[in-house]
Amino acid sequence: MSYFDAASAAPLHPVARQALQASLDEGWADPARLYREGRRARLLLDAAREAAADAVGCRPDELTFTTSGTRAAHSGIAGALAGRRRVGAHLIVSAVEHSSVLHSAELHEASGGTATRIPVDRTGRVSPSSYAGALRADTALACLQSANHEVGTEQPVEEVAQVCRGAGVPLLVDAAQSLGWGRVEGDWSLLTASAHKWGGPSGVGLLVVRKGTRFAPQGPSDERESGRAPGFENIPAVVAAAASLRAVHAQAAQEAVRLRELTERIRVRVPGLVPDVEVVGDPVRRLPGIVTFSCLYVDGETLLHELDRVGFSVSSGSSCTSSTLTPSHVLKAMGVLSEGNVRVSLPPGTPEEDVERFLAALPDTVAAVRERLGAPTSAVTEPAAPVDSLVVDALVVDALGRRCPIPVIELAKVIGDVPVGGTVRVLADDEAARLDIPAWCEMRGQEYVGEEPADHGSAYVVRRLS
Amino acid sequence: MSYFDAASAAPLHPVARQALQASLDEGWADPARLYREGRRARLLLDAAREAAADAVGCRPDELTFTTSGTRAAHSGIAGALAGRRRVGAHLIVSAVEHSSVLHSAELHEASGGTATRIPVDRTGRVSPSSYAGALRADTALACLQSANHEVGTEQPVEEVAQVCRGAGVPLLVDAAQSLGWGRVEGDWSLLTASAHKWGGPSGVGLLVVRKGTRFAPQGPSDERESGRAPGFENIPAVVAAAASLRAVHAQAAQEAVRLRELTERIRVRVPGLVPDVEVVGDPVRRLPGIVTFSCLYVDGETLLHELDRVGFSVSSGSSCTSSTLTPSHVLKAMGVLSEGNVRVSLPPGTPEEDVERFLAALPDTVAAVRERLGAPTSAVTEPAAPVDSLVVDALVVDALGRRCPIPVIELAKVIGDVPVGGTVRVLADDEAARLDIPAWCEMRGQEYVGEEPADHGSAYVVRRLS
User: Is the pLDDT of residue A324 over 90?
Assistant: First the structure.
């Protein structure tokens, strides 16, 4: 079994396990108590805070341990917005933030605030000038991830932080994906992270609030963790989180080079090994361990099952793997293909052989899924049929009620019947079609004319160019 | 070292430790994922939920794992209030709830809601008729702990649940202190608990919402734990929590008898071993492992330090041990002495010898603290001085700026100079005096006349009766 989903959760680092086990005996008592067991717990907590702060590059009293990265984001955003309530209620987030940030933004809007979502380019990257353009007199907070969790693209945090600082607006950086690789540089004001992403235990997040940042914790008051994270401290987990963060940082520079080379192999070789693949995300400014690609004419859930069956655990942003039946908001914001999406995120220590085995297994796996779906086998469009002017714009594909990737497969099947210059209308009510039909056109060199309302779902109009 | 503060946190149960260690290898992955590691994690999570639900006496889909008992209370109260927003915004809590519940009530009031705090009798117990009297047409929620965390008094949950059910109002039971001893009987609607109170790991709370209870989770939306507990699941801890709950339940009946006998020894013997002690809490309807008493003329923090020095870890509701300088709200609501307060809460398995050692060490420890403070050594008031009518009501003790127990000590020192029928005024600005001077009068058979405003602090007027 090769586990290639470190961006969801990394297996427990050996240092985390040791620290956790060692502190189960010393760290269970209430650190607020004055007796021996309480003092021991307090010492462990203080030492963990110092170690984590040192790794993050902040002061210990700026760092709070939360119960997850999600909680850190929720609490950090709510506290920062409330702390600057007098300035205004405008929030800026990128369109590709983690759901914890986007859901905070939705709640903020539902409570009467406003939010601007900064678009990204096709690699998933925001531009600092977009943030500059979005800043307003009533902007209370801006948020930007250090790197994207689905495609690995690194964001220009330093530049955006500078832009925000110039406007007197605090920037919250969600560093969940990158903190294990090193400190987040730049003049940010708040930072959040999640221990289980770097090999720490579940149940620990970090919330850093730089001195001088206005912050008003929300929710019922509580004395623990400077009032920023209510509830009894989970000291064994916190100790394990801090110890493992130091351990992964010590190896980060070396391991980054190694994993970057392995993900580069996937980036470069998959398009040659598997036809009709789009590799997504920034090819250079990216996390070492993440590579993401999408395969035309493939059902993401089936592909995941097949890869699991042959021994690879990966995740997917395809709608067909999600209970919500909508494709990943990240792929959507990037405007790239979502069907047959595969995210490979290698945990530190992944052996080279595992990656080679993956590259060896992928082509047949994808081909088998495609075959089962009756997908077109060739990337070459059939030669254009003789033009019959009567049918130039008459072709309609009815894919109503069919889930991704069927609408795209049906489109690919009929495109050969469309005369060059003619159009085909694909009727579909699957949310993914809106993303994947234009992406297919781009990959195939056909023209995506646009979307039109239909009795049911939408009609996606495609013109054959070649 | 004898650890007698199980009501704050119990040492990790061996079953919890085993389960935690065993599931570190299987429970780190994302249970929402479809691959092997995710499915294993899901199996563990589902099994833990079933085990915990069975122990609580609810359906698995009614039970959510939160990150602490505090979070369970915060989320449970907020969700239940929001779920019944249309009914009204009136909340009922007892005056002796845990701070997580009381702080939720304060936030509710600050947000425009109303709250009624149900008083308790001198044993710390509410009466069902008080709840009946407090229910209104706009009552959205009532809260009652199953047993008190500071004095061990059990609350009439079944009767209060019946009263609430009759009015169509959901009752939330904070079962943090009692769940390790068994299910909470009665027709309650919501229940919260905390794993580290029963020997489970830190980082796990329970929130049970019975089917049919209106509930609207607050905060940013999140898919995990039925939307009631955001953030990545801490599965190893959850597994350990469920396993240890079953383990402690299996031993509960037997261990309850044993601990009850040990705490009964303390209840009965301490007043004979140490002069001027008030044992507080219900003598019969109480948790097996908790006994609480207060010692006149003793500084709680010093007493805790001295007990720690001789090997006993206990906690205290005295103001002098708290950073807020106010005595425990529980002792205040009960109207009992707060100075020199000691809570002994025995973890299951506490050896009889440890309790005997405690009883042997306590008298000298208290005596030493009293001596250092210059406290009166005898419980007998000096014979009344010859009456001089000029000084009958003229005596004033200035204890301004002095912390507990000094105001009471100064009062005790001068009472002998007060003619029978005469009064003495104690000037004090320490919050504890308001509680402890009346309590002293009750213990000493003197009359507490009342409190009068003074230039600084208050004047507490005491009449000598004997």
Answer: no
pLDDT number for residue A120: 98
Determine whether A320 is an active site residue: yes
Q: Is the Cβ–Cβ distance between A141 and A172 less than 8 Å?
A: yes
Give the number of other Cβ atoms within 10 Å of residue B453's Cβ. 7
Q: Pseudo-torsion of CA B82, A234, B144, B324, nearest 10°?
A: -100
Give every CB contact of residue B392 below 8 A, 6+ residues apart in sequence.
B419, B421, B422, B423
Task: Please state the φ and ψ torsions of residue A64, each to the nearest 5 degrees.
Answer: -120, 140
Percentage of residues in chain A having pLDDT higher than 90: 88
Q: Mean pLDDT over residues A24-44, rounded?
A: 94
Residues 124-183 of chain B whose Cβ lies under 8 A from any Cβ of chain A: none
- Mind listing the domains of chain B with CATH numbers? 8-219+232-248 (3.40.640.10), 252-373 (3.90.1150.10), 389-463 (3.30.110.40)
* DSSP state at residue B286: B
Question: Going edge to edge, which strands form the sheet with B205-209?
Answer: B63-66, B205-209, B190-194, B171-174, B139-145, B90-94, B114-118
For the record, the structure tokens of A272 come out as 């040659």
Q: Of chain A residues 202-241, which have a CB less than 8 A from chain B?
A: 202-203, 205, 219-223, 230-237
Between CA A299 and CA A332 the distance in angstroms is 17
Residue A203 — very low, low, confident or very high, per pLDDT cuts 50/70/90?
A: very high
Cβ contacts of B67 on chain A, cutoff 8 Å: 67-68, 71, 203, 231, 234
Whether residue A14 lies within 8 A of chain B, CB to CB, comes out as: no
Distance from CA of A36 to the nearest CA of B (A): 7
For A387-442, the pLDDT digits (tens) are 555 556 779 999 999 988 999 999 999 999 999 999 999 999 998 999 999 999 99
Interface predicted TM-score of the whole assembly (ipTM), two decimals: 0.93
Report the distance separating Cα B20 and Cα A234, nearest Å: 14
Using the predicted structure, report yes or no on whether residue B389 has a pLDDT greater than 80: no
Which 3 state secondary structure label does DSSP give B166?
Answer: helix
Sequence letter at residue B294: S
Q: Which amino acid is at A130?
A: S
B38 or B323, higher pLDDT: B38
Following CA atoms B268, B272, B277, B281 in sequence, which dihedral angle do they give, to the nearest 10 degrees? 10
B34 touches chain A (CB under 8 A): yes
Q: Are A192 and A175 in contact (CB under 8 A)?
A: yes
Q: Does the CB of A79 have a partner CB in chain B at under 8 Å?
A: no
HEC string of chain A equals: CEECECCCCCCCCHHHHHHHHHHHCCCCCCCCCCCHHHHHHHHHHHHHHHHHHHHHCCCHHHEEEECCHHHHHHHHHHHHHHHCCCCCCEEEEECCCCHHHHHHHHHHHHCCCEEEEECCCCCCCCCHHHHHHHCCCCEEEEEEECECCCCCEECCHHHHHHHHHHCCCCEEEECCCCHHHCCCCCCCCEEEEEHHHCCCCCCCEEEEECCCCCCCCCCCCCCCHHHCCCCCCCHHHHHHHHHHHHHHHHHHHHHHHHHHHHHHHHHHHHHHHCCCEEEECCCCCECCCEEEEEECCCCHHHHHHHHHHCCEECECCCHHHCCCCCCCHHHHHHCCCCCCEEEEECCCCCCHHHHHHHHHHHHHHHHHHHHHHCCCCCCCCCCCCCCCHHHCCCEEEECCCCCCCHHHHHHHHHHHHCCCCCEEEEEECCCCHHHHHHHHHHHHCCEEEEEEECCCCEEEEEECCC
The answer to whether B220 contacts A106, with C-beta atoms less than 8 Å apart, is yes
Selected catalytic residue, list B58, B143, B164, B320:
B320
C-alpha–C-alpha distance, residues B33 and B35, integer Å: 6
From A11, A74, A230, residue closest to B220, measured CB to CB: A74
